[in-house]
Amino acid sequence: MTEIADPAVTLQRLRASIDNIDAALIFMLAERFRCTQQVGVLKAEHGMPASDPNREREQISRLRSLALDAELDPEFAHKWFTFVVSEVIRHHNTAAESAGSDAAGAAESAGPDAAGPGASAGSDAGDARGPQES
Amino acid sequence: MTEIADPAVTLQRLRASIDNIDAALIFMLAERFRCTQQVGVLKAEHGMPASDPNREREQISRLRSLALDAELDPEFAHKWFTFVVSEVIRHHNTAAESAGSDAAGAAESAGPDAAGPGASAGSDAGDARGPQES
Q: What is the full DSSP assignment across A10-60?
């Protein structure tokens, strides 16, 4: 009991910060989706390869380094990245199915079942190419 | 082939945006961890209950609403929230083990195996109470 402030008030303050941060995260995730969707369209329009293993390796390496700078567990950052990418791919695959496309075949190697670190290595999953990339 | 710009340049531009957004996300996640760790300490110090189902229900409902505003799939937002929370809990449980504590028992119902939407309902997982809360 070393705190002077009412713990309920402190809890309320911390939860308000968590809520603000979560809102920021949701809006940044939405913006990330907008970018990856544009990448999907671009690659489809210009016949660019869906897979770019070097790109993903660089992304993971960079995010782990940034996590260390931010005092965030780099393993968490790695798993978080893989989760987001696999969800984006799953989302795009669902869209592809409803559009009657069999695209994103290479993407399936980093699908929703492969959420562990490194599971999606070998695909340019960081761009989350969409169904347009058949 | 309706684009005027070099597609490689456009891809580079989009990837630079994705990289910026990912950096922002990592730093915001780090800040979220700092808040949830403080919540864990606060609850432990004051014997406050670890579980608060109403709080988590409100968080999920709010994030789904924000996702709609941002044109992000609310199911993705929901799964993302559950993933982050379960990882925070896993991280804290690991810390608890190394500290010789058997804390966070209630948290296990929303553990790393329960990554689906709704899987963590019933616990105040949004605060990710730490090992201090035994």
A: HHHHHHHHHHHHHHHHHHHHHHHHHHHHHHHHHHHHHT--S--HHHHHHHH
Q: What is the pLDDT of residues A25-77, one digit of tens each?
A: 999 999 999 999 898 889 888 988 876 789 989 999 999 999 999 999 999 99
**pTM of the predicted model as reported, rounded to 2 decimal places:** 0.73
Does A125 contact B at CB distance below 8 Å? Answer: no
What is the rounded average pLDDT for all residues in chain A?
75
Chain A closest CA to B118's CA: distance in Å? 17
ipTM of predicted assembly, 2 dp = 0.73
Is A40 near chain B, with CB under 8 Å?
A: no
Q: Is A7-133 in CATH node 3.90.1150.10? A: no
On whether any CB of chain A is under 8 Å from the CB of B32, the answer is yes
| Chain A hits for B83, Cβ within 8 Å | 80, 83
The full set of domain ranges for chain A reads 7-133
- Per-residue pLDDT at A127: 54
Nearest to A42 among B11, B19, B81 (CB): B11
- Please tell me the distance from the alpha carbon of residue A20 to that of residue B15, in angstroms, as a whole number: 26
